[in-house]
Design brief:
heterodimer; A: alpha+beta; B: alpha+beta; two-stranded antiparallel sheet
């Protein structure tokens, strides 16, 4: 995935069963952000793999004051890339199990 | 420690905590 300067990781082990998972997001490279960024630390949140879209979560982060509006797309992309990887891993897991 | 919580009006909860040093050194 492209290096957006924003890192998203699983905040808990993925049991491949729940649609809602805990994710943790933090900024690794503030220079890659367009807007001013105040170092808040890591932001943990829950995300529903089936019902939610990364853009909505990114927008909520902006509205909560974590990021500037101009970085909504960057944050959304970082979440989308991680979510895609989690979904891919789950599908692979299921196909291996048969 | 410095853990805080922000609840968005849509109901989502954001828990903010320091980034673990091990994570920062990963890259």
């Amino acid at each position: 995935a492209e290096d957006t300067g924003v890192r998203v990781e699983l905040a808990e082990e993925d049991d491949c069963k729940k649609s809602s998972i805990a994710l943790k997001l933090w900024v690794e490279d503030p220079k890659k952000l367009k807007g001013k960024y105040k170092d808040n630390g890591a932001i943990e949140f829950s995300y529903d793999l089936e019902k939610e879209v990364p853009e909505d979560v990114a927008q909520e982060m902006v509205e909560s004051g974590f990021f500037h509006e101009s970085d909504t797309k960057t944050v959304a992309k970082s979440i989308r890339d991680r979510v895609a990887l989690i979904k891919w891993r789950r599908e692979r897991n299921w196909s291996v199990k048969g | 420690s410095s853990i805080s919580q922000v609840v968005h009006s849509a109901g989502r909860r954001f828990i903010v905590s320091p980034v673990p040093e091990s994570r920062l050194q990963e890259k």
